[in-house]
């Protein structure tokens, strides 16, 4: 079950103990931390995220002012003011500070939990409404760009690149981005974004005869980062009931709603996915600096050539650069016969942490070299790096 992350700001030990005691055993609530003053509270808001912040109105003599700053800095966090007295002035100040609720202490554990739950739900609904109302309104291009991340070798970082590229494209130019997991049998892009998919591509295929833009959008899962996702089926053997026409319909509808459709692919060609290659504006082929991966990519380029795939859509990405000291960028370029579009350094610690936590690097480690490299690729695409 998804947990509601709480942060408490108060200088009163008695009040904090009461709250901690009331919440410790509630399994869907996670006490993420505490602050005793404004400086600590703002430092927390800069670095971390809470779903609900409890602000003691007596903090440094004016908790309302702090609440105002917090609601400006963390617009997606619900604030609850903790007050000792109920007066008209208190309510007015609470409303203008952007708080969702006011609790007059001492309060019962049930009242506290109820307030947290309601404030959280109300914030979440408002966020979903904002997100859901926007794909078409904010769409910039007539037809969304289709960026496909592929390799015929497993484990080179397709999923890592696809998820983080989607996030970076959305951040780069506030574009509407949908990530589609077309690794139909073993897709795990939802894990990389910590999404428990309510709907998957199999729900879409079940409705294929009725599918229009609105119905298509209703199967997408919003991610707090602002991107959307169409998840792969949770059970393998999808290819028994999905075909190329279904895939084409789905991609076309998504292109009509989003600025970018980023596709995470399996490590093989398959007739079902032929339309994805045909429709793509950009094919990002990923390799690592290993002889087997580079040979594999060379063979993949030959296959694409024999299928008459347009060479000007191909962009090569070297991932895990530095993994093998003997193989340098220029060796990779010489072997593959074309320049690299992007290079992502090997960073086992940060990438593993981001993938395990299901938080994009751009959010978890925005200043890391590997994130900067993903952003560099996103920037080139946004500036027109996508051919045709
Ligand atoms: N730049 C990097 N530095 C360190 N580790 C990385 C990097 N990129 C990817 N990885 C790690 O490599 C592993 C494979 O990555 P990923 O799942 O993205 O590959 P994939 O090509 O999608 O694999 P598959 O073909 O199985 O779908 C993961 O454990 C991931 O954390
Ligand atoms: Mg993958």
Structure description:
The protein has 388 residues and is α/β, with parallel strands linked by helices. The protein contains 16 helices and 13 strands. It folds into two domains: 4-132, Rossmann fold (3-Layer(aba) Sandwich); 145-385, Rossmann fold, CATH 3.40.50.300. α1 packs across α5. The chain is elongated and about 75 Å long. The chain starts with a strand and ends with a helix. Magnesium ion binds next to α6.
Kindly list the characteristics that best describe this protein.
single chain, 388 residues, alpha/beta, Rossmann fold, 8-stranded mixed sheet, 16 helices, binds adenosine-5'-triphosphate
Topology summary:
Elements: E1 4-9, H1 13-23, E2 29-35, H2 38-47, E3 52-56, H3 63-73, E4 78-83, H4 88-97, E5 101-104, H5 109-132, E6 145-150, H6 158-173, E7 177-181, H7 189-192, H8 201-206, H9 213-218, E8 221-222, E9 228-230, H10 244-257, E10 260-264, H11 274-279, E11 282-287, H12 291-306, E12 314-321, H13 329-336, E13 340-345, H14 348-357, H15 361-364, H16 369-385
Parallel strand pairs: 1-2, 1-3, 3-4, 4-5, 6-10, 6-11, 7-9, 7-10, 11-12, 12-13
Antiparallel strand pairs: 8-9
Bound molecules: adenosine-5'-triphosphate and magnesium ion.
